[in-house]
Amino acid sequence: MKFAACMVLWFIAQQAMAHHGFAQYFDRDNQVRIEGTVHAISIRNPHAHLEVAVVNDSGDTEIWSCETQAKTLLDRKGISESDFVIGDKIVITGSQARREATGCEVGAVYFANGTSITFRTDQGHAVIAVNEGAEVAPGQRDSIFGHWVRDSFGGAPPQPGYLDVINEVGQAASAQYNSFLHDPTLHCNPGTAVRAWAAPGNPSAIRQEGDRIIIQHEFMDITRTIYMNPQTAPANVAPSSMGFSLGRFEGDELILETTNFSEGVLLTHTGPDSSGVVHSDGLKLIERYKLDAEGNLVFAYEATDSNYFTDPISGGVVLSATELELGEYNCEIAIQE
């Protein structure tokens, strides 16, 4: 196995709850230790799953299904399905699933040969290997163009008070949203730009092509075309989850006005119960892109919805410059429509 370097992975420590609503799915305070044999392994996007056959106290065999990081992140760690041999002994430690008695989120995997992989530390911090050797030195970027990556699971929280601006109609719509079933990513739907930029470990690219700017995300294989000249923008564009964007520069800052959304989910896992905030087809996003003093990319948004919000909801994330190339995400639906 090629796990000798696993203990010197690029460590990024952030809050445990940040990863796609971690607390909604798994109980960090209920740690489990599972000892058995590898039953099955499926490494895919948006999440990989490891099944372990465990003999319980009654002598019966149970199949535990435990989730871990996405294929694109595991690829960059050099981990593939071939590293797990069906029938081999294995030990997993991790967090108990909230809805499945035999489910968990993998914290660490221990193999019979003495090697191990740590996905989440004992303190609940995620371990990812996204930018080691591919980071760009501070000051080497002088524009928003290039490749960028979120190198942590730090989340993308909106500014405080955002729940107070959702009107009764919006509250009723959000009450119908179930993050276990309706999270767009489980259906390989990229969601809005807010979700696309919040995906940790998946690089994104911004480039200019004539009078257009192209934004690409490895996450969900998203490609956005930003029309900088309204005169050349197409008419009668069909509504979509990513919307339709017109852009302009104010100094070095790129400002996008994005409209023409289909109904969807603005914030997938947020609020006191880690549920979410949905939006109507009246959503409008003002997106801003600029460099900070350290040469990082700052993405900020302001979301208005004439049907669901009384005032804007705003937030954003900061991304690091990287030389990572975008891979193919090839999402596989986890929840059937």
Short recap of the structure:
This protein has helices spanning 22-25, 71-77, 168-175, 179-182, 193-198, and strands at 26-42, 48-55, 61-68, 89-97, 103-111, 116-118, 146-149, 204-209, 212-217, 222-227, 244-250, 253-259, 264-267, 277-279, 283-291, 297-305, 313-321. With 337 residues, it is mainly β.
Question: Can you describe what's shown?
Answer:
- By secondary structure, the protein is mostly beta strands.
- It has two domains: 6-118, Nucleic acid-binding proteins (OB fold (Dihydrolipoamide Acetyltransferase, E2P)); 146-321, Lipocalin (Beta Barrel), CATH 2.40.128.
- Helices cover 9% and strands 37% of the residues.
- The protein contains five helices and 17 strands.
- The strands form three sheets. A nine-stranded mixed beta barrel has the order 7-8-9-10-11-12-15-16-17. A five-stranded mixed barrel has the order 1-2-3-5-4.
- It is globular and about 70 Å long.
Q: How many structural units, i.e. domains?
A: 2
Strand content: 35-45%
Q: Please tally the helical runs, counting DSSP H or I stretches of 4 or more residues.
A: 5
Distance between the termini: 38 Å
Low-confidence stretches: 1-20
Mean of pLDDT = 84
Topology:
Layout lengths: L21 H4 E17 L5 E8 L5 E8 L2 H7 L11 E9 L5 E9 L4 E3 L27 E4 L18 H8 L3 H4 L10 H6 L5 E6 L2 E6 L4 E6 L16 E7 L2 E7 L4 E4 L9 E3 L3 E9 L5 E9 L7 E9 L16
Parallel strand pairs: 3-5, 10-11
Antiparallel strand pairs: 1-2, 1-4, 2-3, 4-5, 5-6, 7-8, 7-17, 8-9, 9-10, 11-12, 12-15, 13-14, 15-16, 16-17
